[in-house]
Write a structure and sequence with these properties.
310 residues, Rossmann fold, 32% helix, 6-stranded parallel sheet, 2 domains, 20% strand, Dihydrodipicolinate Reductase, domain 2
């Protein structure tokens, strides 16, 4: 029998993309609540309990409600919202974090899909902390830019209504309470909250994260080559090519380091650039906020949970 997959919130930005990614999957049975009943609790409860895997593409409160509606002890869940990313009993759905994480996702009943912003910084920082090149208590700042689809349907409508008048570059998170800080701290293995300083641009999709490092503050200053080697070693043979590590940067700029380059894919590319004489480095990640950042990651986790991915 084909596994039954229910996407709760299938008409939203992430839900629609997951539907599209699963459209040709003859190995799965997609079950859907009739559109006019999609917000009825009873209808959602029925489908949540009928599913082998429920993928929640909902605001946080609705995602919590969906989980509470599952009574059968068998439905497995992938939650795309922020509700459960550092919650007990949930497995963080970033398979490339380490080998153990990939195995944990395969058998997990509850998987919390990562936020789009945390994935890039975790991908670069975690191997450096694990290798002891960056101490856990090192002060970390995360900069970056995301397409406006990161803000879901409301932000998409706002940007598209403004057209050319929409801001090209809009820094946000200015009150320093971005919702991704807890998962960033937990899974990058940091002792303190990083500063999260995002921006949104006047393009639909795609993102870049940048972590600048003032290495001169460290008692033992790692070189750019050492940082690069630790990150490259971590991903070598780990992930079937989802995360790629570029050679140590030797250019001022590149047309490859722009946010939209991996749109429509589940790929993430990591770059390390450094000036050893100045003891400074940048850790850069380029990916699609709706791909590896949301729907691509959800489908990758679904495949792992169903034993269809490596
Ligand atoms: N966009 C992105 O880049 C990313 C988003 N996420 C997360 O994924 C989740 C979904 O986000 P996104 O797709 O962007 O959001 P959207 O606003 O585009 O979609 C949310 C969907 O949920 C539906 N919905 C809202 N409340 C309920 C309810 N009580 N019962 C049933 N359906 C409901 C909405 O229906 P209606 O429109 O009819 O109100 C809509 O279809 C969020 O938690 C978000 O944080 C995660 C990573 C990246
Ligand atoms: C551009 C934009 O607004 N992006 C969203 C994050 C998108 C994302 O990762 O979603 P989650 O809500 O699932 O964490 C933000 O920064 O809040």
């Amino acid at each position: 029998m084909k596994p039954k997959i229910f996407i709760d919130g299938e008409h939203g930005t992430t839900g629609l993309q997951i539907r599209a990614l699963l459209a040709d999957r003859g190995d799965l049975e997609i079950i859907s609540v009739p559109a006019e009943r999609r917000k009825e609790t009873a209808a959602r409860a029925e489908f949540l309990n009928k599913a082998d895997v429920a993928i929640l593409c909902l605001p946080d409160d609705a995602a919590r409600e969906s989980v509470s509606l599952i009574e059968n002890g068998t439905t497995r869940v992938i939650d795309a919202s922020t509700a459960h990313r550092v919650a007990e009993g949930w497995t963080y759905g970033f398979p490339e974090m380490d080998k153990a994480q990939m195995l944990a996702i395969k058998t997990a009943k509850r998987v919390a899909n990562p936020g789009c912003w945390p994935q890039g910084p975790i991908a670069t920082l975690r191997p450096l902390v694990a290798a002891g090149l960056i101490p856990a208590d090192f002060p970390i700042t995360i900069n970056g830019i995301s397409g406006y689809s990161g803000g879901g349907r409301q932000m998409i409508e706002d940007y598209e209504a403004q057209g050319e008048n929409a801001p090209e570059f809009l820094p946000y998170g200015l009150m320093l309470r971005h919702k991704h800080v807890p998962e960033l701290r937990a899974y990058a293995k940091l002792a303190h909250d990083p500063i999260m300083q995002p921006a949104v641009g006047n393009f639909a999709q795609g993102m870049i994260t940048v972590v600048p490092l003032q290495l001169g503050a460290l008692p033992k200053v790692p070189t750019g080559a050492e940082l690069h080697a630790a990150i490259a070693d971590h991903y070598a043979g780990l992930n079937g090519g989802v995360v790629e590590v570029a050679p140590l940067v030797d250019f001022e700029r590149s047309a490859d380091i722009q946010p939209e380059i991996y749109n429509g894919t589940n790929k993430m590319k990591l770059y390390v650039s450094a000036n050893d004489a100045r003891a400074q480095a940048l850790l850069i990640a380029v990916y699609d906020n709706l791909g590896k950042g949301a729907s691509g990651a959800a489908v990758q986790n679904l495949d792992l949970m169903l034993g269809l991915g490596r």
